[in-house]
Amino acid sequence: MTTYDADVIVIGAGLAGLAAVAELVDAGRKVILLDQEPEQSIGGQAHWSFGGLFFVDSPEQRRLRIKDSHALALQDWMGTAGFDRAEDHWPRKWAEAYVDFAAGEKRSWLHQQGVRFFPVVGWAERGGYDANGHGNSVPRFHITWGTGPGLVAPFERRVREGWRAVWSS
Fold it and tell me: What is the pTM of this model?
């Protein structure tokens, strides 16, 4: 029987699991990554996706003269979510934090990981032509070069390199 002594066990080899493991192995932690799917399914649904990501006021948007802002994106999100109950407090806080991330460090962090983007911006969840209802009032759908596999690849590479470094010591 094989036994392992790990610092952390991560359940799920989708993009979130890979990103978590990549950060952990970069920090020198011994990590076991478990998933119900075989190894060739690493990246989960992100691997099979079109690789579209939500960014706010990105260089691609500015180059295409799409006028976007943190305030507009948050207004679009809140108009769609319709947070109007007391139990919506934490979902609202999560939405606010995610728009902060999408308008701030998300794109540059992904670029540092090796993710690249097509020079066009598309619509996903397109709404009306103002920010008072459902959906996005401006295009915010950024496609990664290589689509889903291009999004997963830098994280998978970091995980595999980190495992070799950490588990071989």
Answer: 0.84
